[in-house]
Amino acid sequence: MSAIRHALSTKREDDFALWYQEVISEAEMAEESGVRGCMVIKPWGYGIWERMQRRMDDRIKAAGVDNCYFPLFIPLSYFAKEAEHVEGFAKEMAVVTHHRLIGDGEGGLVPDPEAKLEEPLIVRPTSETVIGAAMSRWIQSWRDLPLLTNQWANVVRWEMRTRMFLRTSEFLWQEGHTAHADREGAMEETLRALEMYRDFAETELAMPVIAGEKPENERFPGAVATYSIEAMMQDGKALQAGTSHYLGTGFAHAAGIQYQDSEGAQQYCHTTSWGTSTRMIGGLIMTHGDDDGLRVPPMVAPHQIVILPMLRDKPEDAELLAYCEDLRKALVGQSAFGEPVRVLLDKRPGKATQKRWSWVKKGVPLILEIGGRDAAGGQVSMLRRDKLWNDAAKANFVGLPKDDFVNRAAGELEEIQSALFEEAKAKRDAEITRVSTFAEVEAYFAPDKRYPGWVEAKWARPTGDELEAVIQKLKALKLTMRNTPLEAEPVSGDCIFTGRPAVERIYIARAY
Amino acid sequence: MSAIRHALSTKREDDFALWYQEVISEAEMAEESGVRGCMVIKPWGYGIWERMQRRMDDRIKAAGVDNCYFPLFIPLSYFAKEAEHVEGFAKEMAVVTHHRLIGDGEGGLVPDPEAKLEEPLIVRPTSETVIGAAMSRWIQSWRDLPLLTNQWANVVRWEMRTRMFLRTSEFLWQEGHTAHADREGAMEETLRALEMYRDFAETELAMPVIAGEKPENERFPGAVATYSIEAMMQDGKALQAGTSHYLGTGFAHAAGIQYQDSEGAQQYCHTTSWGTSTRMIGGLIMTHGDDDGLRVPPMVAPHQIVILPMLRDKPEDAELLAYCEDLRKALVGQSAFGEPVRVLLDKRPGKATQKRWSWVKKGVPLILEIGGRDAAGGQVSMLRRDKLWNDAAKANFVGLPKDDFVNRAAGELEEIQSALFEEAKAKRDAEITRVSTFAEVEAYFAPDKRYPGWVEAKWARPTGDELEAVIQKLKALKLTMRNTPLEAEPVSGDCIFTGRPAVERIYIARAY
């Protein structure tokens, strides 16, 4: 192994935001596109998204939800029907006004004034309105309910400050939209989707989250209740990684989604919507990344194992490659997480140490380095990326007989998956502090504190002006309320804001 | 079985265009969205697309092409760099000019004049320009070549006349974009993609196609050579179902895609692009549909087998359902086309004949009707949709012992797949007529001829004014040249247009 120390130029503790950008760039996940606020998702980043998508889609289908595809464009008039909704989104939408270009007489192009649209079109920031219009056509009777749809799509929200994966003008997501006969059915679906997201985040992404309800000021525009999963990043900030909304009958009134009940009376549907996006990839990076780059949980890694033959550009290489190809075949015959193991044999020319470093930065779960001596002795040299803290640390390589490794490969991957989860959960739990007074909140988030975590407080769920006062108090400390956890012990004691008896717990944090 | 005759209201021979619309509606594949030129793809249509997508994606990945994702928006300046390209697309693009809405003072919304973009953005009609900009960043040396990328995305081309799946303002597709060191490499890739499309169309979609080069007037804007696969619809018209373009160095010059060759000299890359879209679903309908609706090739059917228990709303139903559930489990344990068989047990309430009709219209390859007597006798009653020509025809049901059916289910599906292909191929081949003179073309496409097929002619590949004259002559007969087939016998004889010695064959047809 080489003595050269490969390293990122930024450590997490020095500048977390810069480290994040560097990981994305060094792991070749994404880059600026040159188009304002939009990124290019490169093969390694997109490969992770594809694995996430496949697994999430399986969960969505298993719940009986049908995938559909709805238009990218939404007429202004559809959008204007739901007052709160439009208020929430009007500030950040891309507006199509023309359908043709024309020469400007100087060799350039301009929108053709003759081709101005009668009604401008919005590039969807979310699809409640256009899907609501479809639902109003599809639903006639109680027999048509529940109606369960989902789409995988791109959406656009014009953002002034963008950050790759976390906040981009265009992003990729899935949005579930369902209609039900009553509140009960809709609430059940809202919470089913939330639980699906919680389990997906913790299982597939190995990212511990807290599932709970958002305070009313953080609700989706037009929703009656909004639920989220919240993850803690390694800088202590919260990331909302998925949301599920109970929309009541507001969108049904706006779009005319009605059904005839079993007694023959017309009723409005209760609707829900729920979504997760490429933002989760940002969460994955900031949960599992280390000072050597990304660490990808094996369940969503495009390659779970990379085999690196130590090629020497000599005739012996042929034998070494044959040995590695044998190993690759044996490994893809193994199954991990219910799927064939994904293995890449990296035959590219180049220095072995540089190639290793490229895979370390990308966070491939298992790297196998195979030299001529390994091949002759029927051995492999294995590096578990979850344990690697130093590129030069030979100690992290484990030598094993080839057959032993093949037999334990799936087990290693499963171990890495849970080790990443346990590590992240331990980190997060250690950074959640219970407080009983607002003074403790202020102390916890003292200005000189680097990377504070979250506080868990109790509150009386104030509303109106009282809530507004809380929001302002927190805002002064750059804090927001994240959610009130669904699975929490019963609460006793007083609200840290009002002094009245508390009714529930709430997490308070800085957030992305 | 019921004596009620379920039927579509339009037959293919009476009005093919109306029949097409009715199949889409009755099979619940798609519908108008209320947004100009955009459709809603419903679960059955989207399910077919998902199967197509999965299989095409496997082929793309197997060819070593990496999926990426590029921005929806393209700055006007990017687009204007390739002169022919912009000429070809400028007439039909959606233009984003504002990024915010504002109240109009009368309760409505208008684009905010304060939020006008400095440079308008085009909603991508295709991505050569924005991917070219990325390639220019990614490629430095010959070692980076070939660069093989693909994306699955939505694109927008403003269409005045739209037709579901065939021509919609927004559609879904995959677009492959590759860069190579030289012409040979790029041509090889162009033809590899074309052959992938040919094989996909004929294997997965059971749709016979002719792979060939488009005449120069039909080239993609900016391409040096365009190749297509052309399918014949049941009304005799041609449908271009996929294209592959050799772009030469034009886009590389426009975007600055350069590499250093092994001698250290700067060279421009040779690029390609290739795409298939939801348009193929239109081709599938018009290739395999019959007067009872759609027939879906089993390889891309969301459900390959539907089990219909003849429920009677009586206690005996439980036993019947248990029998059907057993059958379902046995079937999903079988494998067809290398994947587990996809089976739906349709437990919905409702009349069995109506439920059967709904699946007949949707074109599920195999329908199993199971009554109490079948269950008691360990039998199934099987309907092969490819053979059904009349909903009331009992003769098409075949009674079989359950275990026999389970064992032959995959075989039946494979037989249906090839039967659909053979049927379509026989129909197409019968409708291709070889002609030796232009007078024969005129006679073949006589105005009173209903649903004429194609003619295969020989030509000398005229260019310039001579080609223009050919185009006009054909246009008068509403005809276009489709392609010059790659796999054709050597040609002898004279060009039907110029009388000079012919150099190749060419297909001439009416087209979608």
UniProtKB/TrEMBL annotation, chains A, B:
Its EC number is 6.1.1.15. Keywords: Aminoacyl-tRNA synthetase, ATP-binding, Cytoplasm, Ligase, Nucleotide-binding, Protein biosynthesis. CDD domains: ProRS_core_arch_euk. The keyword Ligase applies. It catalyses: tRNA(Pro) + L-proline + ATP = L-prolyl-tRNA(Pro) + AMP + diphosphate. The keyword Transport does not apply. This is Proline--tRNA ligase. Homodimer. Its main location: cytoplasm. One of its GO terms (molecular function) is ligase activity. It is found in: Cytoplasm. Catalyzes the attachment of proline to tRNA(Pro) in a two-step reaction: proline is first activated by ATP to form Pro-AMP and then transferred to the acceptor end of tRNA(Pro). It holds the Pfam family tRNA-synt_2b. Consists of three domains: the N-terminal catalytic domain, the anticodon-binding domain and the C-terminal extension. Residues 28-297 form the Aminoacyl-transfer RNA synthetases class-II family profile domain. Belongs to the class-II aminoacyl-tRNA synthetase family. ProS type 3 subfamily.
